[in-house]
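Query form — protein SAMHD1

QUESTION: What is the three-dimensional structure of this chain?
INPUT:
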Amino acid sequence: MKSVGKRSCGGRGKRKKRIRGVRGEKPEIKKERYYMYEIVANKRNEIDVDKMDYFARDCHGLGMKSNFDHLRYIKQCRVMFTSDKPDETTIAVRDKVNIQLFIHVHIHDIGYYPKRFTDVLVEANDHLLFKNNSGHTVKMSEAWQHPEVYEKLTDSVFDEILMKEDSDKQLEIAKELINNVYKRKLYSLVDETSPVTKIEKQKETMETLLLENTTLSEDDFTVQKVTYSCGMGPRNPITSVYFYTKDNDTDCFPKQKKPSLFLPQIFEEETLRVYSKNDANINVLKKETAKCLIKVGLESVKNSAIDSKHQGNAASKRKLNADGKSSPSKPINKKSR
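ANSWER: The structure tokens for SAMHD1 are given below.
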């Protein structure tokens, strides 16, 4: 019995040691299962069901139709070994599927998360509290450290803020902001710019310059930098997509034989926008924004200087015509005929 007990205890000890070793080591991913990591969060080319899901969701919420048919795309997908790395698998798609539509939808955002919702969460952060597994109180800004709390932060948070009975000024501001969003009383776009070069410190500089005006405060405006891309920065995702043909459905290749000429040359764009929170000071904000954009070296899309320059060129042309130095062809008078 003792020898049996020793063997059984020894066996359990070795088994526990093996389990600890497996848990401590990073699990090795088999290359023939690489395709599984391209379904939900595709790091190879950023084309995955997660993005297809929120494209369809946002289009439905905005009452518009997406040009990209994700169901057709999924039906044309196959799990195949790649031609350049034969021991790895990937999700390949038929070459006739128009991936460019997916890229187009990705670049041109079909909707945006209102900036006012961000302000709601900031104002209500100290008042909407949750408890983690240890029983400690956690704020929304700290929820990312506690998965059991983070999973509770759904769209229902805004309803909880509205139903919360508290007379605190911050919470009242949060409730007012939510109601304004539901009533479509959004922040007014004052001006924006999309420079060719990358936006670096211009956002912070704009905020500082606008606050130097004594009539403006942080409650009057917000400066937002928005980045549009296909998920891979300046890179073209299509160069990382594998395709197969009707004639050869056992092999896939990383490039389409006939790439579309409608593809953009740039796959990432940054836009700097200035929004007005207070319509009472919007005229002052417009004037100051135009001045500040010139100071930081950015050109406004509503630049009145460009219009005046064009008007000046037109006036000079009319003056030349009056002096007789240059005259356009006279129109034919039908009555004289």
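ADDITIONAL NOTE: The chain has eleven helices and eight strands.
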